[in-house]
Amino acid sequence: MLFLCCFATLSVCAQQPTVSIEVDAGRQKGALKPIWAWFGYDEPNYTYMKDGRKLLSELAALSPVPVYVRAHNLMNTGDGTAALKWGSTNMYTEDKDGNPIYSWNIVDSIFDTYINRKMKPLAQIGFMPEALSTNPTPYRHYWKPGVNYKEICTGWAYPPKDYDKWEELIFQWVTHCIQRYGKKEVESWYWELWNEADGYYLMVEDKVKVYCKMYDYASAAVKRALPTAKMGGPHATGGAGEFMRKFIVHCLTEKNEATGKIGAPIDFLAFHAKGYPKFIDNRVRMGMSNQLKDVNRHLKIISSFPELKNIPVIIGESDPEGCAACGMKTDPQNAYRNGTMYSSYTAASIPRILDLDEQYGTNIIGAVNWSFEFENQPWFYGFRELATNGVDKPVLNVFRMLGMMTGNRVEVSGNMAYNAKTIIDSGVRGAATDVNALASRDKKSMGVMLWNYHDEDVAGNTAEVELLLKNIPARKATLHHYRIDQEHSNSYEVWKKMGSPQSPTEQQYAELEKAGQLQLLSAPEKISIQNGALKMNIQLPRQGVSFIRLTY
Q1: Cα 367 from chain centre
Q2: N or C: which end of the chain has fewer CB within 10 A?
Q3: Residue 149 — very low, low, confident or very high, per pLDDT cuts 50/70/90?
Q4: b/e code 149-171 from CB counts within 10 Å (16+ = b)
Q5: What is the pTM of this model?
Q6: Annotated domain spans of the chain
Q7: Class of domain 10-29+407-551
Q8: Which residues are named in the active-site annotation (predicted)?
Q9: CA–CA gap between residue 516 and residue 520 (Å, rounded)
Q10: Per CATH, which fold does 33-403 belong to?
């Protein structure tokens, strides 16, 4: 029997709120789908820049399965200059006579960066090249944080003026990818049309009708180039349940504008789910309830179509709120992003998404964390990102924990106060924090991720967790205990202790880089397991995350 108690004496531990959690390795619930191995961002040209390449290498390394990457602006006209919420590849222009000119150099640099790291594109057909836009002027935006979000919707956000030319562009792009990367590789990708067409990203009045027409032509082009390609949509916003429903009805029963036949191919469905933090009384209050409501809303609609049983579902953006490029200076509710609040929120939300997926009998295969990095920006500015200036933030270490979870999900029970339904109904707003776990096992290991989360970003009690692991199929094991909290796996706290330097010295940078990695709470330990059971007492600080890994 092993007892662990950290940051306090045993007598103080006994005075803290106690949560009992049991993990039964003998009760397996099916494969634990690695829905977390999906990432995305607005600015595709960051992909092949120094810090972008570094972060993509880290993301590829943290997962035992291929990581999928989704980026906006892959078809935009421009010279490849990166900017907030902007990017371009210049893949399509026209000569003076209106003849197409295709250029794949920049988009190849993006996809090459993924493929060289054994990552997979979630290849977005968007947005509209200037020469094809129905309203091309002005074309590029110069949005900055604090400016009205609608200002980004310039010429790229309009439908094509010539659907035949647009379809041919898509056909040529997919054909080029097959020639460059091989048929088998491209068959493993997901091709998708546009982004949030129900919102700002498609500047027309009848958004459903226009989007469905665009989808008909786009899917026809993709399937003409590669009949076995996986094509889907509509990447509707979280509140756009009726948009999702009408899109499905169109694909199943309505006339296809490109082929003249009934229906359009859908190999997967995609929607977005966002939380809603607020800045109240000089502190951040998160809104996980909103994000889970979005998931619940769309899964309810998808599951109502028996024709779509088991169709893959991708949450194309799955985040605590909506604007990654809005820092905490202009949007104080985003102050949660640098520290452990973002970590614990992420740890607590992913298992609840899996629970809703199980409840509806749907097939979520990915939940895209819309966070990457921003080149040449201030340190810890409060962007929603995984790393700042090449230094990993605490949230990235949650994904490192998840990457060590393999095999089947196993049953977790105990006296926990919150589940998905409770959070949907009222958030994590009660006196008790959400202390819970996600667990998995394979033939040679077990993994248990524990979190202590609350919507209110304030200091609070450390939770005393009585963790019991049952039916462990081994007598001896090696135990690793990893931790994210104020003192571990937390580059932000180290940076603040340095005096918050905007130009760290070489030595400071090395220290920050080390602090950004996933750290052990204690040294690895060889342990004996009696009667298949292991009992642990763990002190878990508010907004902290622990990961227990047994190998045998």
Answers
A1: 5
A2: N
A3: confident
A4: eeebbbbbbbbbeebebbbbbbb
A5: 0.95
A6: 10-29+407-551, 33-403
A7: mainly beta
A8: 196
A9: 12
A10: TIM Barrel (3.20.20)
